[in-house]
Amino acid sequence: MKKVNLKHIKSSGFKVPKGYFTNVEDKILASTRNPNVLNEPKANPFKTPTSYFSNLNNQILHKLETADHNHKPKVVNLQSRSSMYYIAGIAASLILLVAVLVNKTNTEELSVDMVENYLVQQDLSSYELAELLADANLLSDDFTIVETNYSEEQLETYLMDNVDIENIIEQ
Predict the structure, then answer these.
(1) Residues 6 or more apart from 162 whose CB is under 8 A from it?
(2) Exposure winner among 81, 127, 146, 164, fewest CB in 10 A?
């Protein structure tokens, strides 16, 4: 199909009679000033051919008689389409359900050894460890230490030697 370029068309294709715009204003004003124009009954613009209704029945019967009786119109079965929509919706929901259930990742629990190795490898100072432990909320009911390799005396001596008591008192 050839595309028409409108840049090269010289005329718009619409024409108005000469003097139309000079007389149209006067015609509109004259029609609005005349009160009888609004009250006049308009003639019916729709006309039927002569003897149209008397021949209408015969024309319809003639068309029915000459029509092909073997011709059957196309019938679109709406039931099959709606069932296809149901089946497609069920299939999509099953695919979504399988995707959600299959993609569950098992979370691995952290062992104490893994955490200890991590902290050793990071070379954290005692102050950084103290900040991490303060953020971890270790005072919950679930946190219990069952076995320790240290006696109470060893812990006391370590704390007395390595911890600045004045810092603890200030905080």
Answers:
(1) 126
(2) 146
